[in-house]
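## tool: complex_structure
## caller: assistant
## args:
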Amino acid sequence: MTSYIAPTKDQQFLLQEVLKVSASDIPGYAELDPDFTAAVLGESGRLASEVMAPLNAVGDKEGCSLENGVVRTPTGFKKAFDQLKEGGWAGVDMPEQYGGQNMPAVMGSAVNEHFLAANQALSMYHGLTHGAASAILAHGTEAQKDTYLPNLVSCEWTGTMNLTEPHCGTDLGLMRTKAEVNKNGSFAVTGQKIFISSGEHDMAENIIHLVLAKIPGGPDGIKGVTLFIVPKFLVNEDGSLGVRNNLSCGAIEEKMGIHGNSTCVMNYDGATGYVLGETHKGMRAMFTMMNEARLGVGMQGLGQASIAYQNAVIYAKDRLQGRDVTGIKNPDGPADPLIVHPDIRRSLMDQKSFIEGARAFILWGSSLFDQSQRQGDTNADGLLSLLTPVVKGFLTDQGYAMTVQAQQVYGGHGYIEEWGMSQFTRDARIAMIYEGANGVQALDLVGRKLGQDGGKHAIAFFEIVKDFCKNNPELPEFVEPLKQASKDLQAAMMYFMQNGIKDPNNALAGSNDFMHMFGHVCLGLMWAQMAKAAQSALDNGTADTEFYETKLGTGRYYMARQLPATGLHLARITSGAKSVMELDASAF
Amino acid sequence: MTSYIAPTKDQQFLLQEVLKVSASDIPGYAELDPDFTAAVLGESGRLASEVMAPLNAVGDKEGCSLENGVVRTPTGFKKAFDQLKEGGWAGVDMPEQYGGQNMPAVMGSAVNEHFLAANQALSMYHGLTHGAASAILAHGTEAQKDTYLPNLVSCEWTGTMNLTEPHCGTDLGLMRTKAEVNKNGSFAVTGQKIFISSGEHDMAENIIHLVLAKIPGGPDGIKGVTLFIVPKFLVNEDGSLGVRNNLSCGAIEEKMGIHGNSTCVMNYDGATGYVLGETHKGMRAMFTMMNEARLGVGMQGLGQASIAYQNAVIYAKDRLQGRDVTGIKNPDGPADPLIVHPDIRRSLMDQKSFIEGARAFILWGSSLFDQSQRQGDTNADGLLSLLTPVVKGFLTDQGYAMTVQAQQVYGGHGYIEEWGMSQFTRDARIAMIYEGANGVQALDLVGRKLGQDGGKHAIAFFEIVKDFCKNNPELPEFVEPLKQASKDLQAAMMYFMQNGIKDPNNALAGSNDFMHMFGHVCLGLMWAQMAKAAQSALDNGTADTEFYETKLGTGRYYMARQLPATGLHLARITSGAKSVMELDASAF
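## result:
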């Protein structure tokens, strides 16, 4: 019952008028002229709308099944995955050397939004493959790259990441999976991994598992962890598939959502594995994949909010219920459409202003990635590192809240499965949990990223905000609230510095609030930048006044109704850790 | 995998030390001495924990099925329902004349929390029966009362409420179900009703449907609506069951949650119905049931948050992950329990402080109901009428948010169905929707209740807050934040008065925020009252210092970290309707 239209116009605005990609000196950006980006987004949008979105409910209803070690994906998933492969979509931003199209990450992200919104469960199969390819690209030997990358970039093979075990998720130092060296220098990997997305399925001829394990005799805890490439089928020297490796899917989980993606218990029984990167430095290699995955999961928050919003708008315009208190709007009908009612508007504006701000935020993050990767800009890399937990944590918390609001627009029809809104909520829920639960993101932000490199990336962020405000006094509706919110954020940081030394809990008890206020300031900055671009188009006599006026109006809503949340977060943070920590564990 | 322990100690504290029921002059309260209430709550708690809670996951997994017009409930539901009947639990607060135990509503509520927390889907069968009985008690003829009440009070028969049709939910004036008078004075009811909870099932020998319909020739819209008693089996003069009525269950819905409750499409094909109350005044009669149901749904928000919290606490104490940054707490184990981590504490404190505040709020509301019903106190009735949308809307929005937080404590284990946390979230989601979606509650609050009787009930509420603050200056940690929050709420009301006249959208665009800030002030007041009672017990040398110190600590958390939300809501409200309403519908 649901539908999806790719937000290409909004993406074009962001790419060409806000980020101004074709005028950028980042290598590869010059090719991103408006016609080119429109053509690419048009095609990926079509695939998302016409092929992937119609399978979303099918995947939810059928789920995956495991029989005799074989996992079957839902009807139509393989055919859609084949179309994705044929279009080369999985390798949009991968090097040409390995069969990719070598576009910047900013385009990879824009395309990925379409797929993740249209069908999150299906998109996870190639999303994780991309992550595995990135890890091998960054840390693999030339031989490993040649062996695995062409087939991962094309999605002939897929990839996974194996971290979690039954007794450990966040605390990977507790890991029990072990890897013992074989005579030929490879390793025998033994252990059980759980919650492995796309761990086993019927859509690709091989699956390349990246598995964290401990080599006996190595350092204790997280410092003794090594990352291994553990293929489902070993690969012969000529590139053909060799023997089946000693690994199997023991079970698939029943979950709240993303039923179309197989979440597997994976058993490794002396499976042959090859060290990726250096021994005992597995976390460094895994973090290449994990950081990418965290940005991708932030995109899932945006994606589900976006498709849910689109459908809520359709329903709000279609469903007749009650009358506009300021005067009948649909005199020929028995009632006015839901969208006339102020609280429905309030909800739709919450959603719309979040979605468009989040879209800008992720594309900005992707452009920082491009600066880092293509220009070797370590400042961009550091800033992205600071923003990664905000993208992941804030966008998935808020994305979920907005998806729930979209579901709410449907009333009772939102709760029954027939209309499809429940699935968006159930699917969106996972994004707050995997790739590091959002509490872990907040901890990473406050406990690690904020002070990284002497705090210079946080300072750089505030400089960006300050410069924008200084240079754009003609936009007071945007600049003034942004200044206030940024001031709140700085005050929170100051509180952490002054009080976290006495007791680190004074900082950590405020970590969730800090992540959220940071997210709001980022979206406030995005809205200010978008407002500037929109105002500029209007000043230059654009014919499409409706688009730009709408952009300004949506931005004003965010500044008036969402950004002031920073004040509440600050109040909570500065109330300190005492009320959070004073009770004995026995008192709960 | 989940468990439930009834919060009897906390309820005893509220009944005996905060509401001081046994010292109250409300008729029936004198009997509520501590031993009596402890005995009642002990028994209902036992039934909830030992019989109903273990069936919660069974109900979710099996759901209900419809075959040849017969709806089967999940394994064990009927047996548990029989135990509920045998214990007389459905009629706890019903008149003795009809087989009830005639306890005050405050006890009915306390008992009901146990059942709704332990198994919401199962409890809805008797919950709606209670509502139908209340409507017949208030609006039925003596003959109707004699015919239906004994069997409804005992739950030999169950009841339903039939309002929604496919094209209308909130806007009942659009209703198409019609009722034409028969020769014998009864009516023939024809039409389709949807989303009928407990509409058909195998747990009772008769089902008494209360159905809204229009008598042709009556007034248009909502003023032409009449409420009918439409039994599944007609009742003979001697009380025995007669012919099967012309009504049937056409389908049961697949839903996000509450799978154990049958949500039915009900078809009435000239079914025999009897007017309940007056013709064309059906909404008045239905509102007796609906107001009761709204308080019950608010209790569902509390109930799911409460059971989810209990299980989150167990997991947080059990799951070892990471180390306390201020010093190792579990040196003999491989890691410390989750509960040492500040953000886990923050989440548990959010939950705990909400749950205990909400519990106090609902019991206060129930005591207002008792004052109204047992003492004819119209002021109490008016105040409860004002608070009803707050109980329903705020407690279900927040209850859902807290259930999601409890699920989050489990990380990935919260997302898979095996652990049971997902069900709490899925079940809790409905409470924000049914009995009037929360946007409708906010509209009812701001558009109707606030100004009712010249605004005197709102004024009375502020007087209660003011008196408490004036009389308890020795509790500044509670009184000062409460004063500020109450000031914010009054400022919002003032804004509505000054700006709503120019444009009602200035009020309605802030309705959701107002409902939430009102809820926070109510919980702030509850916490202040609880703090006073706790402080008094400590001053009087109680032996159980841990309980009362914990109560004070939990209250301080609410005042420091939750109550300041009123400032954000006020900022949103006073930003006015412009940013909410300015976009054309086409711009979404």
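## assistant note: The CA atoms of residues 475 and 532 of chain B lie 7 Å apart. Chain B is about 55% helix and 10% strand. Handing back to user.
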